[in-house]
Amino acid sequence: MDGLMSETTERPIRTFHPRRGRMSSRHADAMADVWPRYGLTVLDGDRTPLDLVELFGRDAPRVLEIGFGMGDTTAAMAAADPGRDYLAVEVHTPGIGNLLSLIGERDLTNVRVAHGDAMELVRKLPASSLDAVHAFFPDPWPKARHHKRRLIQPANVALLRDRLRPGGTLHCATDWAHYAQAMAETLDADPGLTNAHGGFAPRPAHRPETKFERRGVGSGREIFDLIYRRT
């Protein structure tokens, strides 16, 4: 649900499967009614800087949600955290439609929904412009030949860290033990990040349970949270 490319013109290695599912009438209505106000399309290769004050209509701490799935977690966090703005990016169109529906139904003015490659979006953001980055249950790409497609790679982590303000947090979660260990090794190796808990973090109360988490728990897998701060 995200993308990988260095800040050059080289061809990106995608870390997501482009998917287009059927949209319900509720989702289609939200696309028609809410998208024009709260949606934006991320175009590959477009490096036009994104003005976040203009996008949200205010200057507030901002959270980037990478790969929000159906958007229930994002909507819940944004509703409980009105003092921060949430920029949520996804490639799955039914999920986008569902989050837009939730925004309309709950009158959430602090959420903006981006459709496209997350790392392309990150390249449009100013340095030190984010209070937090959330990457909850990204595709683990479990086969060894696909590991290069994982979101948490050194180049991506360096870019995400650059967009965090000093003291800002990068919060990842996964239910795949091998990916959790690989994440920890990659994040520990970044010179500008510090593990906020000295190891895997206790599950934060502010992170609502996602369907991926429920699925993992139902399959007997342990949930791993990793929280790092920009130094």
TrEMBL record:
Task: Quote the record's binding site residues for substrate.
Answer: 143, 175, 210-213
* Reactions it catalyzes: guanosine(46) in tRNA + S-adenosyl-L-methionine = N(7)-methylguanosine(46) in tRNA + S-adenosyl-L-homocysteine
Residues recorded as binding S-adenosyl-L-methionine, renumbered to this chain, are 65, 90, 117, 139
Q: Name one GO molecular function term.
A: tRNA (guanine(46)-N7)-methyltransferase activity
Matching InterPro entries, A to Z?
A: SAM-dependent_MTases_sf (IPR029063), tRNA_(Gua-N-7)_MeTrfase_Trmb (IPR003358), tRNA_methyltr_TrmB_bact (IPR055361)
UniProt pathway annotation: tRNA modification; N(7)-methylguanine-tRNA biosynthesis
In short, the EC number is: 2.1.1.33
Q: Name one Pfam family in it.
A: Methyltransf_4
GO CC aspect terms: tRNA methyltransferase complex
Q: What class of enzyme is it?
A: transferase
In the record, which residues are listed under signal peptide?
A: none
Its keywords, alphabetically, are:
Methyltransferase, S-adenosyl-L-methionine, Transferase, tRNA processing
- Give the source's domain of life in one word: Bacteria
Transmembrane ranges, per UniProt, are none
What's the family? Belongs to the class I-like SAM-binding methyltransferase superfamily. TrmB family.
**Which function does this protein serve?**
Catalyzes the formation of N(7)-methylguanine at position 46 (m7G46) in tRNA.
Name recorded for this polypeptide:
tRNA (guanine-N(7)-)-methyltransferase
Q: Which organism is it from?
A: Actinoplanes auranticolor
Q: What phylogenetic lineage does the species belong to?
A: Bacteria, Bacillati, Actinomycetota, Actinomycetes, Micromonosporales
Q: Which gene encodes it?
A: trmB
